[in-house]
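Why this split exists: single-chain examples teach little about how molecules sit against one another. For that reason, every record in the complexes split bundles all components of an assembly together and asks for one structure covering all of them. Below is a record exactly as it appears in the raw files.
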Amino acid sequence: NAGVMQNPRHLVRRRGQEARLRCSPMKGHSHVYWYRQLPEEGLKFMVYLQKENIIDESGMPKERFSAEFPKEGPSILRIQQVVRGDSAAYFCASSRKSSGANVLTFGAGSRLTVL
Amino acid sequence: DQQVKQNSPSLSVQEGRISILNCDYTNSMFDYFLWYKKYPAEGPTFLISISSIKDKNEDGRFTVFLNKSAKHLSLHIVPSQPGDSAVYFCAASVDNAGNMLTFGGGTRLMVKP
């Protein structure tokens, strides 16, 4: 009974490259949330998706960032033309439906380092 | 503008004693508060929560207190155990919505044997 799986766990990119982070929700979960943790800060909400739908992207930077959760396969957070300020830990959480915050299950995170 | 603040980046206590972790918030729209625990290389794990209609919620060794007038909440762990050593995040939400969580910066708790 695997939990929320994120990969890669660590990703190093040079400025200007693209970063793709993947999140496979828990079995039976159809709702995915992405949060970002900058160094020395708490987690900040980025985007909330259901299968094939973006429900809330109010926390997502307007440029270079995009997210999807296709009918088949994992949710993907894509960062184009990365900059040093994108270096952070990116956490994915999932839930069975539009659930309370107390039933979100978080993955172990993907740590992005931009050189 | 940090809406949820944890002013103590770290806390060290002796095993068996009480650990008190504090959290302050500014947004009066928050009506649901949560504590998460995070070990290194793992994601945050939900620990305990409290609705704004209550001022206390207890679950085993963990108790959360909410003071709405002061916009302050605290997590008490008693007795503290070495396995409690982790980073604790306070979070606040509107309507307990998963996409509306605002986290504090975390407090690293170290429980010494």
